[in-house]
Each structure stands twice: as structure tokens, then as C-alpha cells.
Amino acid sequence: MGQASTQEKGTKSSMMDADDDEILNNNNSKTTATTHHPTTSSTTSATSSNTVGSKNKINESIQIVSIEKENEEEYDYLVKVVLVGDYGVGKTSLAKKISQRGFTTQHQPTIGIDFVVCTLILNTKETVRLQLWDTAGQEKFKALASSFFRGADGIFVIADISEKSSFDRVPGFLEDGKKNCTDDVEFIFIASKTDLRSIGSSTQVLSEEDTKREFRKYDSQIPIIETSAKEDKNVEKALLTIIQRIYNKKKEAKK
Q1: Shortest CA distance to 244 belongs to which of 192, 191, 190, 188?
Q2: Is residue 5 part of a domain?
Q3: 1 is a domain residue
Q4: Cα 136 from Cα 37, distance rounded (Å)
Q5: 35-56: per-residue pLDDT in tens?
Q6: Are 106 and 114 within 8 A, CB to CB?
Q7: In sequence order, what are the residues at sequence separation of 6 or more whose Cβ sits closer than 8 angstroms to the Cβ of residue 45?
Q8: 54, 246 Cβ separation under 8 angstroms
């Protein structure tokens, strides 16, 4: 896992890509969210729906203003997000790309889990202490699934568009998450390594349509976000999407 310098300042971020990536769902309802940056502002559209079993309404008005080093003393909400996927799909690369935005890295070699911790500053002036767990290699240790899923608020289920077989393990990860988490855990499907489409890769690369078809075999409502850690495409969008889906649940729990 990449480790951010302890001197690194929180990185300002608009957190929503202007990319038109579609997030398919049964409702096909769209809302527009506006993000403000110190020097620029942009308006982007994102399609959303509630994950099956999710009890909280998605709050797309929530934006992430900045990401800072871990602040153990003060935060309003604690959020745990777990990254799962077959070996080599890009879980660690995604976590490293996020880690460049102000995270510090911690390592637990005894159970093979890396996780990064940071503080997200929201446009509501509230703070989120985010734990992002990278389960690199953990797929071999099914007995430990309950350990790294326990307490998770969100799960990124990642598959590699250049490895069609990586989609075959998606239902297993969904089952593990539902078995070991609460009913309102939020899932996001991540299709990784989209940069391979533009470089003439010698391997067979799935089109966006094929990628959606593969994910939709297993769930028709979970949002799909295509990312490239190499090109830094939609990394921030993935993070914001899951925070928006978790926020109301956390706020309600504080009442």
C-alpha cells in the first residue's frame, strides 16, 4: 500500500468526475449535484438507486471538500469500506491512488490486510474518519471473511475488464458481504483498468456494455463505476458515491 507523507496536506477535491459513466439501476432516476472547488466549479450528473436491502436514502447533496491526514481526536462519523475482488484486479492500485489524497497507511501482516485511514471534510462542515480496507490476498482465507467484513459500511466489489474470469467471483463476494455485514451495507461494483481499452492491449478487453452485462448477472441495482487507477479516472467518483450512500444512515444513527 502506498503511504502518504506525514507532511502531506489535505488535498482539495471536487470529487465528482465530469465523465458521463452511466450507473444502471431499475429506477433510472437522475439527479444533478454541484461541486465547488476553490478555483473552479462543475455540475455533474449521477444516476443512483438504493441497493437491495438498503434502508437509507441516498444523499447526493453531500460533497467532499477535502481529504486530510488522519485526525484521531475529532470526527463526526466513522466509515469502514472494504475492497474485495479476485487476485490482480487492482484493489491495491485503487487504494494507492486514493492514498495520494492525504491518507496514512497501516499494515497488519499477521492477517494480510492493509488499510488506510483519513479524514474527509464534507460540505456540511462535518468530518468522516474513513477506514479503507484492502483485502489483498485474503480471498484464500475464507475463514477470516467475517473478520475483515465485520463493521463494514460499504464494499467495493472489483473486477478487471481484461480478465473476464474475475467477474465469475463476484457472486461469492456479494454473498460474503451480505452474510457478514448488516442488511444496509452499501455495495458498489468497480470495473477496473479501463485504460487498457485505449492502448490496444493484446489481451481481450471487455467493452463497457459487456462489463455492465457481466455485473448485471448478479445484481440489477448496485451502481457500476468504471475506473482506471493508472489514469486516475473515476477514483474520486467511486469514493464520493459510496460516502453519499452511507451518510444518511450514519447521521440517523447519531440521533
Answers
A1: 188
A2: no
A3: no
A4: 34
A5: 333 333 333 333 333 434 445 6
A6: yes
A7: 20, 30, 31, 32, 33
A8: no
Q: Which amino acid is at 117?
A: V
What CATH number is given to the structural domain containing 167?
3.40.50.300
Which pLDDT tens digit goes with each residue over 212-231?
999 999 999 999 999 998 88
> Which pTM was predicted?
0.74
C-alpha cell at 155: 464494499
Whether 118 and 47 have beta carbons less than 8 Å apart is answered as no
187-217 per-position pLDDT tens digit: 999 999 999 988 765 568 999 999 999 999 9
d(CA 152, CA 118): 16
Residue 228 is classified by DSSP as: B
Please report whether residue 2 resides in a domain. no
Which residues, 6+ apart, have CB-to-CB distance to 119 below 8 Å?
A: 10, 67, 68, 69, 70, 71, 75, 102, 127, 128, 129, 130
Instruction: Map grid coordinates 482539495 to a residue.
Output: 12
